[in-house]
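Feature request disguised as a bug: please show the residue count (135) next to GtrA family protein in the output. Example input:
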Amino acid sequence: MRLPEYIRCLLPRAVRFAAVGGVATAIQYTVLVLLVELFGVVAIAASALAYGLSALANYLLNYHFTFGGAVEHSRSLPKFVAVAVVGLAINTLCFALAATQLPYLAAQVVATLVTLAGNFLLHQYWVYREPKWNP
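Example output, currently without the count:
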């Protein structure tokens, strides 16, 4: 079975995007645990700060590794910041709601899963939207 051309072009980028997301998620969870367990930061504030730091890593890695850095930062960065702010709001709201019923790490898993799908779609079709990247 042969994959459609569009899928064959998109697949390597999707794999790189997933790898970057894994690294950013690892950063987010590490920072969250360190802030809560070592520094006694309130979990919801720690979650928001961890999200912000992982978003910075996510932008830089996706810009250079996933999408090749062919677009000026002046075009891609404002869109990425808008997506990150929306993602932060979704993450924080989901975390706050889930944390009323779950331990903070389980609440973060719920928040991460809810935020993930929206972030991928916005990155693919808006932040890095260039004809050569969106066949």
